[in-house]
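Hello,

Following up on my earlier ticket. Below are the two sequence lines again, exactly as submitted.
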Amino acid sequence: MNNHEDIYEWISRYNEGDLKGEDLKRFLQILASDPEIRADTELDRELTEFFKDRDLLEFLNVLDQVKRNKRQGFGLNCLLLAALLIILVSISGFWAYMNPLRTGHPRIRESVVVTTDVESTQSQGKIEPILRKSPGYPEILIGSDIKDLNLLAANFQPLNYMEGMVGIVTRTGQFNLLSPENMVMLVPGDTIQFHWKNSGETDPSFEVINNRGEIIVSREVIAGGSLTLPTHSWKEGLYYWKFLLQENLVSVGKITIKR
Amino acid sequence: MRPFSDSKIIDGIVNKRPEVIHFMYKDYFPLILALVEKNSGTLQDAQDIFQEGQMALYLRCRDHELVLNCALRSYFYSICRNLWLQRLEKKYRLVYEPDLLVNESVAKYITKESITREQKLVRHRIFWKHFNQLPEDCQKVFLMYFDKVPFKEVAEKLGFTDENYAKVRKYLCKKLLIKRIKKDPEYPNCVDHE
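Thanks for your patience. The regenerated structure is below:
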């Protein structure tokens, strides 16, 4: 044995019974004195025994095959599932596109809301709906949802994103709403008066939206400190008003119109 | 999948029937996974324990050592449970060795004989894992060598230059396998140290 590399050859030959004579004698001496060589010899012996047990190897091979097939099957199942999902999404998308009136929540083909601008129409003696783009407000569907306008109860459904803001007042140093309270109850046909003090340089703008997020009144600039708003054209229901200074919200309130 | 009776499963294991092995994976593996995961183990631990359990069951069936006093499912579960407890005990012993000198070990129910037997299963699983990761020609050389195929024929079949190269190849492959096994982090835990 010339170097440590060759010890593996000796171990192998020893375990196979091929190591004889002087080589065997020398190897046994090494084995007795070196625990690492003893451990390697034991490992080699056990490996030989393991590889000779062809039944066990075949069994392990079958286990591996089943595991592999299982993984492939899982992969295939995932692919099938993904394909099925794509088909379902495509079908439902196509179906929803073709049947806009059947969707359960607002969807819109273009960003348009039905708005009744009281000011602009009142002078002409009739109220005409005006189609207006409404950026920043939830889009609503013209179609099936418009039918819901006829349901009285639907008019009192709170508008979540506005409800949380009722009563807020910001920039109190600059803008101070004197009246009304932030929650007002009216009967149809009443008028409502707003009074405020504004020490800022810019005048506030004013909006009223209904409980569907539709703007029904919009005043770009209000100078003077008061505003009288007739509500005779408003249906019974819930409305929210808001004052804005340079497009920033400064005051929000709620109007309920009910017989 | 139609369930197999216990005797059909035992017969299927002895005869290495893939459909029975597949059934075991489907039916038994969730139990073992739950056992292992409940006791701070991972999916990989569960897979290892499951494979060792199957090897143990196969060897007991093949060597006619199987004495079944309960459902096979329960029997297999107890094999895997013991394997997992031993592994936990080993882990516990490594961490809490000083405590074990004064307190009763959790291993009181595990005999030396069973430890040796289960350790052998772990070693065999490790052997098989590393054998599968050897280059293909190495695997073939091994299998042909242990089938007592003459080196000359091995060289011819595997396209080696001559039988001497086949011998060298077998030697190098075995060396590689031993090196990888010894490097396996699990290996030191499943051998008796002197």
